[in-house]
Amino acid sequence: MSVIFKKHLEKFVSIDGVTYQEVFAFFEIILVKKKENLMEEGEFCNFHFFVEQGCIRKFFLKDTGVEQTTEFALEHWWMTDTFAFERQEQSTFYIQAVERSVVLRISHDNREALLKKFPFMEHYFRMVYQRAYAAAERRIRFLYEFSREELYLHFANNYPQFIQRIPQYLLASFLGFTPEYLSEIRNKLRS
Amino acid sequence: MSVIFKKHLEKFVSIDGVTYQEVFAFFEIILVKKKENLMEEGEFCNFHFFVEQGCIRKFFLKDTGVEQTTEFALEHWWMTDTFAFERQEQSTFYIQAVERSVVLRISHDNREALLKKFPFMEHYFRMVYQRAYAAAERRIRFLYEFSREELYLHFANNYPQFIQRIPQYLLASFLGFTPEYLSEIRNKLRS
C-alpha cells in the first residue's frame, strides 16, 4: 500500500485508513526503468498513470520519425492520453519513463468502478482535471505570449528543479528548440 | 429557468425537475451584446461562464497592446480564467462576447455551495474539466505537429461551422496569423 498516494489524496478529501485500503485495491503499483514505455501509440489506451516517484513523459512520433515530447509528469501528477482514455480508443501518444520511476496505474474499468463505489473520488478527480486544465490554459497563453528565449527563461525561473532534472535534449524538444539552440540560449544567459 | 442547461446536464447526470430548479437557483442568466466584456484583466475572477446561445472568447493584451485570442466557447462550453477562479485571484484574461449571447454564470461561492449540496455535480464538473483538458492536450499537440497552413486546414476540415461563424480577424489571431496571411492561405486553397 502506498503512503505517498494517501498523503496526496488527503490534500483533497478526508479518507480513513480502512477506506483508503479499499480505494487502493483499484490500483496497481509498477516499477519502470529509465526509457521503459508505459504506453505505446496504437495500443488500446486502458490506463491512467500517477507518478509516485520519478518522472515520465508523453511524446508522439513526427512524420520525420523524431520524438516530440509534449508533456512531463513529475511526482503527484497524472498522465494518459485523456481523449483516448475516455473514449476507450487507441492511444495517439507514447508514455515513457524519463528516469527510474514508481507509478500507480488504474484501468478504465477500475476507475469507473472506483468512482461508482466512492463518489467522493469524483471530487478528487474534478480537482485533478481542473488543475491540469488550468496549467494547459496558461501554457497555451505562454506559447502566444513568449518568444522561445522568454519561454526558456520562464521555465528556468519558475521551475528550476524541473530544468535541472530533465535531460537537456528532452527539454529542448518540449520547448520546441533544437538542442543546439538551447545550448546557445544557456551560454548567452551565462555570459 | 433554462431548458437548454437541463438538457445539457442530462447528458452527464440524472436530474429530476425539482432538483434541477434547486441547482439552477445557484446560477444567473445574463444577456450580453456583441463585444461586451464579461470579465476584464485585473478584475477579481469571481465567475464561471456557460454559453447557452452565442459565442464568447478569451483574450489577453500583448505588450504591443494587441488583443491575442486564446480560446473560443460556443454553445455548451464553459469559460473562465481557471487558475484565477480556483485561487480567487485577479483575472489575467478578458472574456468578451463575439456575438449577442445568452450566458449562465455561477460565482465561486455559489459553485462551492452547489457542489456541497449536490455532490452529483462533482461528476458533472469532473467530466467538463476532463473533456476541456483532453481538448487542450490535443491542441498543444497540434501546435507542435502542424505548420500554420496545416493548422488552418485542420480547423476548416474539422470545425467548418466554427470557421464560418468566427470573424476572420479573430480566427487569424487565434491561429497566430496576421489577417493578411489567413487571406493568403484561403485564396491559395480556393485556386
Main features:
homodimer; 191 residues; alpha+beta; Jelly Rolls; 2 domains; four-stranded antiparallel sheet; 9 helices; 8 strands; 21% strand; globular
Itemize the secondary structure elements and their pairings.
2 copies of one chain form a homodimer.
Chain A: H1 3-9, H2 17-24, E1 28-32, E2 37-39, E3 47-53, E4 56-61, E5 67-73, E6 78-79, H3 82-87, E7 94-97, E8 101-107, H4 108-117, H5 120-145, H6 148-158, H7 160-165, H8 168-175, H9 179-190
Antiparallel strand pairs in A: 1-8, 2-7, 3-6, 3-8, 4-5, 4-7
Describe this structure in words.
The structure is a homodimer of 191-residue chains. Helices cover 49% and strands 21% of the residues of chain A. Chain A contains nine helices and eight strands. Chain A is globular. Chain A has a four-stranded antiparallel beta sheet with strand order 1-8-3-6. In chain A, strands 2-7-4-5 form a four-stranded antiparallel beta sheet. By secondary structure, the first copy, chain A, is an alpha+beta fold. The interface between A and B is medium-sized, with 35 and 35 residues.
